[in-house]
Amino acid sequence: MRITIVAGARPNFIKIAPIIKAIEKKQNEGAGISYRLVHTGQHYDKNLSDTFFEELNIPHPNANLEVKSGSQSVQTAAIMIAFEQELLQNPCELVLVVGDVNSTMACAIVAKKLNIKVTHVEAGIRSGDMTMPEEINRIVTDSITDYYFTTSTWAGQNLLKYGAEPSTIHFVGNVMIDTLHQNLDRISAPVFWKEFGLENGNYIILTLHRPANVDEEKSLINLLEGIDSMVGNKKIIFPIHPRTKAILGETNLQLKNILFVEPQGYLNFMYLIKNSFAVITDSGGISEETTVLGIPCFTMRNNTERPETQTIGTNTLVGTSIENLEKFFSAFLQNGPRKAGIPELWDGKASERIIDILLSKK
């Protein structure tokens, strides 16, 4: 079985790393399976892509399509044009896509039009918010997928509602958690750890990148000032996304607690998460990692495609207003973290299950 694995953006790299390890393990056992790794170039900043390949021991991609940035349509079209040529020159039996970025949808469409089977890892998750490009990517990808691999039974139920055949849906667990398990003994403090006087539990991690939170400069500044003033004497480490940094521009912010740092590599960032007091974010993936690490997480969104991080894990959905965040954070300070657990099959073995199932389909 020849598999083409697609990665395009930072979350993809974290998800493909354990899948590649699982394939290589099967190869060493004599299984008839091979892979070709294609990096679309959707994320091309070294801190957002190359660093992850190095840290997670992902092999150098067999091809880099180098599509870079553009509008949603321009980027999607560029990926499709380049990926079609890639598949024509390097045929395979299966294209494996992960997550919900533009590369996921674009490469799935190209594969199906070439009559190549598609497998979607992290299939079936839904936010219900059609203003999110990721939601459209999920729906389109899942509508043409042959083999679905899900992180929860809830995701499988979503797929059934959309008409997927039950025999094609496989609840395997969470590959992002595979990567976490495989690297917990390798995580390390960032260079600024001592400089900022960071210690276990004396700081908060902040990440913001979604348009609802960062696209308008004035509201972004109000949000940052509100967060800065509500945390008491806790430091706030804010690895600022290049897009968010550009929106702030040369604004002279008067913040006493927020410390701006560059985007972090995986090993440094997981160290920061694991040792933090709490996390404030608008990322979906981070709420999965905080759940497994037992760190309280406050997600600044009106919806989530990962409800298990709320019902079982440590995540609290707080909306996009600073007033809501202050209310929930204040309750947390007063009452302490709520009781939480780890979702079923988030045990670090999802990738092995995926490859075992794919080999059974030969």
UniProtKB/TrEMBL annotation:
It comes from the Bacteria. Its EC number is 5.1.3.14. Residues 30-358 form the UDP-N-acetylglucosamine 2-epimerase domain. It holds the Pfam family Epimerase_2. GO terms for molecular function: UDP-N-acetylglucosamine 2-epimerase activity. Keywords: Isomerase. CDD domains: GTB_UDP-GlcNAc_2-Epimerase. InterPro entries: UDP_GlcNAc_Epimerase_2_dom (IPR003331), WecB-like (IPR029767). Belongs to the UDP-N-acetylglucosamine 2-epimerase family. This is Non-hydrolyzing UDP-N-acetylglucosamine 2-epimerase. It comes from Flavobacterium paronense. The lineage of its organism: Bacteria, Pseudomonadati, Bacteroidota, Flavobacteriia, Flavobacteriales.
